[in-house]
Task: structure prediction
Amino acid sequence: MSRPRTVLCLSGHDPGGGAGLQADIETLAAHGVHALGAITALTVQDSRDVRRVIATDPALLDEQLTVLLADVRPDAVKLGLLGDPAQLPVIVRHLARLAVPVVCDPVLRAGGGTDLVAAGFPAALRALLLPQVTVLTPNAAEARRLVPDVASDLAACAAALLADGCQRVLITGGDEAAPTVVNRAYGGTPPVRVHDWPRLPETFHGAGCTLASAIVARLALGDTADEAIAAGQRWTQAALARAVALGQGRRIPGRLPQ
Ligand code: PLP
Result:
């Protein structure tokens, strides 16, 4: 068997397996891509909400990445929940050396409502990380929180995030009140591409992790950013259409082989 493509995932751990690193691993495996994973945070949560985030010590994360990346060079990187702003300089230093496509899901708040990051995190993420990011995938609430001064205008939020240095911003609309889910990809040509999806009746846990992982899988397989953004949404929509209820709260995307 030839060497599979690999994606380095820096993600949190969800003991229920709906979100975080397990969402990444399942999504990547479904694309035939191998996940390398460093856990950025442990969590206490169920399918309704996150109760606690325990960040990985930045020095431990640094040691893990140093040893791993001396051995394997991933084809792309996916960033999910980062438990501590002090992890950012460590991650940025490793990304600069790698120079591969990076998908960043700026996880700021759980779907259940709990805040997952410190007050200074959004500004630090913008200043340090965005110049290294190929595709940023905030939902509308995250985009507004990243750019609070123009929060009423999502296009202005996207423009500010592109000005920070990332190449594409895909703002998803699953958390907005519109009758369909309208996702908008900013950057590139044309400057805005609108992707419209039927709004499914259920609510989901781990949808954002799944989408960012599907996009990074396609980048690792050689897609352009715009191809990956389109294909990642198609794959995620299909996974949401066959989502399963494991616990009492939200459903998790159906990512397992049929
Ligand atoms: N737990 C972890 C480890 C996550 O990475 C995320 C989101 O990315 C969540 C929980 C929250 O997921 P959701 O908002 O889909 O419930």
Remarks:
- The mean pLDDT is 97.
- The pocket of pyridoxal-5'-phosphate is lined by residues 11-12, 14, 19-20, 43, 45, 50, 80-81, 107, 110-111, 205-209 (CB under 6 Å).
